[in-house]
Amino acid sequence: MKWTVSDVDMYEKEKQYIDTALLPLVQLTLSNATKTAVAGGELVQLLASEVERQLKGRLFLLPPFTYFLTETKEECVKRLNVWTDELKKSGMAHVFYLTSDRMWNETELGGKLFVLPSIPLEHMDEVYQQQMVREQTSKLLSSFISHWT
């Protein structure tokens, strides 16, 4: 389920079956590293959407947790853990984070971290993009399922 009115209606009716929140972690900057940050965020959101499509009814894809490159890691971790606590209070037994930023460390977080390789999509042939998305999605699905069991 996505963060849309129609999916929230479904979520409210089926809340007892939806126990996992998927939270993309997306870095923001308007400095020299803008293009790198955008590429990483684009990939993360593309894969998060594909995972949501395949796990609709079990997983709730939330809007991205965004943070500035200039924020300290401690500030980001603190804010993210506040979000995680709120999600868990709301009934989410599992909180999965999806990012391409290697700054994050799972031991500091209240959920399960999945770090993707940073792959720039802009110069990639569309057929290869689709293949890469399928492969990464398959790996993520396997990881999610093993975490649930």
TrEMBL record:
UniProt xrefs under InterPro entries: DUF2487
Highest taxon, organism lineage: Bacteria
Pfam family, one: DUF2487
Name of the featured protein: YpiF family protein
Taxonomic placement: Bacteria, Bacillati, Bacillota, Bacilli, Bacillales
